[in-house]
Amino acid sequence: MSTDPYVPGVGTDAATVEHIALDLDVRLAANRVSGTAVLRVRLTKQSRRIELDLYRLRVSRVDAVVDGRAVASSFTQPGRAPSRLVVDLDESRPEGTLVELTVVYAGTPTLRRSPWGTIGWEELTDGVLVAGQPHGASTWLPCVDSPTSRSTAEITLTCDAGYLPVANGVGAPVRTRGSRVTWRWRLDQPVHAYLLSVQIGRYRLVDAAPPAEGLPPLRL
Fold this sequence. Notes:
By secondary structure, the protein is mostly beta strands. The chain has one domain: tricorn interacting facor f3 domain (Immunoglobulin-like, Sandwich), CATH 2.60.40. Strands 5-4-8-2-1-12-15-14 form an eight-stranded mixed beta sheet, with no helix packed on it. A five-stranded antiparallel beta sheet has the order 9-10-11-16-13, with no helix packed on it. The protein has a three-stranded antiparallel beta sheet with strand order 3-7-6, with no helix packed on it. The radius of gyration is 19 Å and the shape is globular. The relative contact order is 0.20.
C-alpha cells in the first residue's frame, strides 16, 4: 500500500529495498529487455506480502529467501497493464525480517504517464535514456519506487557492441562477446529508485584533464 500522497499508487509502507543487484540485457533494435534483479528487502512492519513497483514488464519467476533460508512463495501482477508485483511469502513475517527476492522478468519498456508528463525508460532514435523522477524507475526494474526507500545498487548492462551502456556509480567493462558488450556499474551511496538511470548511446570514453592549479574560486 502506498502512503506517499505525492506519488499515489506506488511504493509501500511494509518494506524497503536496501540493495539492488540487476543484470539487464537490452536489445536496442526491438526495445526489449530481459532482466534478473536480486533485491535485499527489509520489512518495516509485520507482513506476509511484499509489494513492488514494476510497470508493464512481465515476471516469469520469483524466488524468496528469508533470513538465509529458501521459502515457498507465489506472485501476482494485478491488472491487464500491471504496474505492481505482489509477492506472497509462506507466512507472515515480523518487522525487521530480511528477505532476498530474485525476480526474473522481460518485456518492452515504455514511458509512464504522470501529472508531470511522461517519465522513465525512453527509446531514442539511436539508444536509450532514462529520466525517472519521481516514480519512473519501475519502467525498467522492480523496486519500491517511492521517496521512502533508498538502496545501493550494482547494475550490469549488456547491449549491442558499438554502444556504451552507462548507469550510476563507478563502471568497468566486463566483456565483449561477438556483437554484445557488457559493463558493470556499482553505486555504494544509497539513493531513491528514481535516481537510478540507464543511458545507452554511441558514447566515447575520454580521460578528463586534471584541474589546473592556481585557478581563482568560481563565483556565481
